[in-house]
Amino acid sequence: MGLSIDRKPKDTEIGRTESMKEKALTFTLVIAILISISLTAFTRNVKAENNEYTIKEVNHKVEIMYDGYMFINDTIQINGSVSDFLIGFPYEYGLHVVRCVAYNATADFPVCLNVPLEDRVGFYGVRINFSQGTPQVFSVGFLLSNSLLTQNPSNASQYILDFPKYPSLTKDVKSCSVSILLPEQSTYMGGTVDLAYQQEDLPAFTGLTAKVAFLSTDDAIQIVDIEELEREIRISGTGEVECSDTYRITNQASNEIGSIEIILPQNASRPSAHDQLGRKLEIGEIEQADGYKVTFTSPLRIEGSDVFTVRYYLPSEGYIEQGGPKSFDFRFLLFQHLNYYVNRSSVTFVLPEGAKMLSFEKDSVGGSYSVTRDVFQERLTINRQGVLWLDSFIVEIEYEYDLLWLSFRPTLWMWALVVVGCAVAVVWRRRKVPIPVTVSRVAVRLGSKDIKSFVDLYAKKRKVLLDIESLKTRAQKGKIPRRRYKVRRRTLEARLNVLSRNLTDLKEKLSGARRQYGDLMRRLEVVETEISEVEANVESIEARHRRGELSLGAYRKLRADYERRKEKAETVVNEILIGLREEIH
């Protein structure tokens, strides 16, 4: 009895403690659930408040650029506020998206590509961030590749454009107006829509496509890819500005092209054009603002690539202002009136000898830049990926320059002549026995005809190599039968072997003629080896990418590096051939 009486209070106390713990735990869970429900409701209310908007009007404008690229500009007017605005089009067009920009008159807005259009499939979506405030009117521009513009193989003047009929939005649109802007001197032939149409009460998540057919002249459209534009701007001490633009283009049309139109800076004068071998090309001004037409010596074949350079001059007025005796301000507007898309661009500003760069506007560059300094000269290089007219900006460079540097070169040459003259005079006085002059027999036998033969044969060899590369690309894309590809490749390789043998004989002849030619031939062999190594590396990374050993990003980066190495090597080859061609004259 005593034992049972002693244990009962302890059991009761333990039970009460456990009961209190259970009640406390239950109370805590209830409070946590209530807080969670409150936060969820608050979040939904805030989200609903941040997405309370209506789309009043959309202007859907489709424009065909000179190089066949398509620019779709959607100007949107909304009422209300939204933190993340979604817009898109049918997913089939997503593979052709090159760039997307969102902007209004005062600012640019961050965009995120290839996102879901809420919970709907079959759409390519773009998210626009309005966290800094929702504009009531803004524009969204899409740049789509020129593969959506097809050309009739039998009639090169006939085109068919495939494009999204309306923008795809997550809310209904009260009014949507559409306009298709064809190139000048084009004739509308028909299609699934007219060149201008309107839709009232456009439903959300509309995913319709459209096509139009039209006729256009060769001068209005050239379906090409401008792979690279390298511009060098040299400022002389007298204020004259000398420029050179080097273009690398690839023909994506279904026929050969014989000319191309380019845009030069305002007030350009004395333009001249040359191909990569230094041969002069015809160039003429056209009606378009600051536009010029460059005509090739021979038509650029289908899927073929070419390089040409345009040189011109700019006046000091409007570009250079003198702020003091030694202070100058250079202002240059880049990419104005550009009616084509440039994959890569590089612009180099070369200051006069002896000039010192004081400052330049870094915020407007929008890409990578570098400043290099030689012994007497400084230069600024700006690199940008993907350029069109929306990327126009002003480069402003302030530099210090003393006009006394204008006499630097003449003075240097004068002193050099004085030193050489004194040395010759001393040698002439000390010479007692006349030194016989021996003339190399081989040098006597070498004529301008041999040099011309070497340059012409080398140009033919490069053309055959380009033909083999183009043939390989067409075979990979299934544009020619496999059997025809093998026959054509054997023919080209046989021709290449003959050219290589003839070039080897001429190389030996040139090397034995003069030391200068021997150095050029050895330099040429080094560059050819570099090009062969680069081509082998490109084939290697292509095979690794096909096997899945190399990601798309890594593959593109490596390929761009190899292409730059190859371009530099080919530039050296062009310099050697131009030097030999000058020897002919």
Question: For the largest beta sheet, what order do the strands appear in spatially?
Answer: 18-21-20-19-22-17-16-25-28-27
Q: What is the total domain count?
A: 4
Decide which structural class fits the backbone.
Answer: alpha+beta
Q: What's the helical proportion of residues?
A: 25-40%
The mean pLDDT is: 82
Number of helical segments? 7
Biggest sheet character? 10 strands, mixed
- What radius of gyration results from the CA coordinates? 34 Å
| Name of the CATH first level of the largest domain | Mainly Beta
Q: Tell me which CATH architecture of the largest domain applies here.
A: Sandwich
Provide the CATH superfamily of the largest domain: tricorn interacting facor f3 domain
C-alpha end-to-end distance = 133 Å
Stretches where pLDDT is under 50 for at least 5 consecutive residues are 1-15, 39-50, 432-444
- Number of DSSP E strands: 29
> Overall 3D geometry?
globular
CATH fold-level name of the largest domain: Immunoglobulin-like
Strand residue content: 35-45%
What keywords describe this structure?
alpha+beta; 585 residues; 29 strands; 35% helix; 10-stranded mixed β-sheet; 7 helices
Kindly describe this structure.
This protein is an alpha+beta fold and 585 residues long. It has 4 domains: 53-215, Sandwich (Immunoglobulin-like), CATH 2.60.40.3650; 224-400, Immunoglobulin-like; 404-431; 446-584, no CATH class. The chain is built from 7 helices and 29 strands. It has helices at residues 2-50, 408-430, 441-445, 448-476, 482-513, 515-546, 552-584; strands at 53-64, 70-80, 84-90, 97-103, 108-109, 111-117, 120-129, 137-144, 149-151, 158-164, 168-169, 173-181, 187-191, 196-202, 209-215, 224-235, 241-251, 257-263, 269-275, 280-285, 291-300, 305-314, 320-322, 327-334, 342-350, 356-360, 368-373, 378-387, 393-400. The strands form 5 sheets. The chain has a 10-stranded mixed beta sheet, with no helix packed on it. Strands 5-4-8-2-1-12-14 form a 7-stranded mixed beta sheet, with no helix packed on it. Strand 20 (280-285) and strand 21 (291-300) form a beta hairpin. Helix 4 (448-476) packs antiparallel against helix 7 (552-584). The longest helix is centred in the N-terminal third of the chain and has 49 residues, at 2-50. The radius of gyration is 34 Å and the shape is globular.
